[in-house]
Amino acid sequence: MFWINTGLGTLLAAALVLSTPLIVALYGEPSLAGIIPFAAAALLSGGLQAQQQIHLARSLRFNTAALTEIGAQLIATGLAISLAWSGYGVWALAWQIAAAPVALFVLRFAAARFVPKAPRRGAATQPLIRAGLHVGGAQLLNFAALNASTVMIGNRWGAAPLGQYGRAANLTNMPTQAVVGPLTNVAIPTLNRLRREGRDVNSALLNIHTLITLLGVTMFTAAASSAPWLIPLVLGQDWAPAVGIFQALSAGGAVSFAATCCFWGFLLNDATRSLLISDLIAKPISVVLVFAGVLHSVEAAAIAHSAGIAVSWLTNLLMLARLNSFPSLQSFLVGVRLIAAGALGVLSVTVLHSELQRLPAAGAVTAAVLVSLSIMMLAITITPGGFKLIRGAWRSAAMLRK
Fold this sequence. Notes:
The chain is mainly α. It has helices at residues 2-18, 20-27, 32-58, 62-85, 90-112, 126-157, 159-196, 201-235, 242-268, 272-296, 298-321, 328-351, 353-356, 361-382, 386-401. Helix 6 runs parallel beside helix 10. The mean pLDDT is 83. Pfam families: Polysacc_synt_3 (PF13440).
């Protein structure tokens, strides 16, 4: 599998380099020609380190996997800051793009001590390759759908609105990248262990679903409610137009946390083909929604992007319901309940916006976070079964720490 992952990474990197003239023509920005090879290096490094990550997960060395991820980001960020301080400008960011995956490969290679063997026939990899092709195809569709808005906005509205959208998208992607990937590495082996022990996997999966959705909704509720003061405070007043975009994308970010367990459900049930079919249905709808939104405004494109994520979640749930081995209805109800509570928290801050405007920026951020999260937790706990829901999430957190 190491050689297959490396080959795929090499092919993707080569395809990206070969598409350089098309990308430059699309954005009308000749300087991209020098930046694209850095992104290609990142794709190649990602293929090289994939098997190292799998080896660490199989060995249940989750802390090591998390530490290498953090270490790689720190190395890349430190390099970018040093280069920017030395006057390299945009090239500092280009080096950061390439440095993070390269550092991750080096750190995980040293930690896992996994040395690949020469490829050979009869290694019983055909089922793995087939499943990998299904998951890879689904991920490719997901990548295309997620980036369709960026391409369309750049082509329709130009560089400045694209920069605002890109910054808002990066901010909303940060919690997902920080939580979902590492948690997946822990959750899948844990659920497989429970299945081998003959325990109720669906109950455990639903509790983990509650935990990760609650975590995501909490983060995005706090971020979206405080965004009118937090973004100008951190990024500067010039980024104030990105507030509405960020809030619209935050809704999709919360839904993406709720949808994470669907991906786990496909993997646990060896239903990767169903995953691919589901994405073949949902992702084109997402792209059409974004296209319609882009024609109106950048904010509408952000709303359409979040709506597309919701469509994908619902499609995945319907596909999983056919398997009769995944709690689709319960998962949907829990997700809607928590997301609605988060939306109520954000709405409460919107009602108090004029009052919060009188406070200093830092005070307004603090007040917005406290008010929104208090309303969110109140909405969860006062409804029937609210405390039971929280207890289940807490138990799943304890289980994953073991």
